Amino acid sequence: MNKPNILYIMVDHQIYYRHGWDMGPKIKRDNFEEFALSGVDFTRAYSTNPLCGPTRRCILTGLYSHHHGEILNDVNVPFSEKTYLDILTENGYKNYYYGKWHAGVGTALDHGCEGFCYPSYGNPYLTQEYKDYLEEYHLPSPKIRVECTMDPWRLDLKPGELYVQDKEWTNEEASGILLTPKETHESFFLADMVCKRLEKIKVEGNSRPFSLRLDLWGPHAPYFVTQEYADMYPPEEIPEYPTFDSAQLEKPSCYRKEHNLGIADSKGNLIYPNPIPWERWQLLLSRCYAHSTMVDDAIGIVIRKLKELGLDENTLIIWTADHGDAIACQGGKFDKASYMAEEVMRVPLAMSYKGRIKPKQVTDALVSNLDVPTTILAAAGLSFDYEPDGENLLELEASGFKKRRKFLVSETYGHIERNVAKSLVTSRYKYTVNKEDIAELYDLALDPYETKNLIFSEKHLPLKNKLDKMLRDWVKDEKDNFFDGDSEYILQEYLSKGTNKPRDY
Prior knowledge:
CATH architecture: 3-Layer(aba) Sandwich
Helix content: 25-40%
Number of domains: 1
Number of strands: 17
Largest sheet: 9 strands, mixed
CATH superfamily: Alkaline Phosphatase, subunit A
Order of helices and strands: EHEHHHEEHEEEHEEHHEHEEEHHEEEEHH
Strand content: 15-25%
CATH topology: Alkaline Phosphatase, subunit A
CATH class: Alpha Beta
Number of helices: 13
């Protein structure tokens, strides 16, 4: 068989775990669900490091953060290894990349790609390409009416006022109504560029296999959505999230830290009980859910265009996210931080490959977005020139999901707060070791919202010891320094390799 084309879709900060699963309105992601039916839906997928920069580097290299060194956003550790993009380029692929980078130094254009990609987090609304897009379709410049804001760095955001996204980064911690057509949203702008590229590939005859990556900024906050999408989720129909009113007393201190306006005190602690009334959280969640649906619709345009052009016949398609969203969980959070809650760790992940992967498959095998680059290269008959940390999902599927992991590890080096931690997840339990703080043990089968930390339960001591040994053995095999020193020692060892001081350090 000819080498397959590859379409890799990644969204940012996807609201996913538990929202609409057990109560309240289901988040409409019709395009993702339809796509998942064409192949396999991985229902137990995790982020390898639930923060943009580290995970995005993991997905490029197939390596854990403790191996590639980009442990925080914008450390800018130089690439010492080839990315999967480099390897595809060297082996005859035509590479395209459209969207957010935020994986460290440079951009995708430094790794054999054509397309639209700017350094760091970026703001697509400030680019010439976006201005040309507005002019081509006679669209107005986007304007937002701000509803809610919790952003401690954007004090110019005022509820009720009009706002234009003209800052260096487009990650405002806010919600509002996009008053201009939905096509002025970055996701529809990116979808348009990708569709034009697919049309050009079709016209050129597709003589070389292509790899196309679509990286959206959404549904990461700001949750700026048109009224059409806002109306899909009446705020009053959203029930209180089960861990919203939780004091987090049995958990490590990172759960009780917070930096966002209105929910944090002057010392950076989460105020309890949460001072923002649930009615305001309902509005935030309404816009968050709507943003997810809006981005899903934009991606649907790309999937339909691929099929319309007949380019899906020999194409591996993977759709996932870098990490989740902590909104309203664990005491009433906003954004994410350094805690390893399921809400930030779990991500959607689906994969299709016509003629190779049977449709309508669902599996609860433990997988990670770290597995994506290894899978892409394997589909192309290629591999990294080192042993990657990720696994080949095609091999897992071909085995009938019998060749599955016994456990999976995710890690964090903090975000805002300095908490270095590793989580070991099995089919039922999750064990997290936080440096300089108490550990966590949850029975995810009986306690999916992680309300009861079993770490001090005498009944569960044998289990805790077993999981602890598994994690320590894994760390030793990884040649990781996790148990070698305190958090500051570990952080400085990695940060000294970078060329930039992280924005939040």
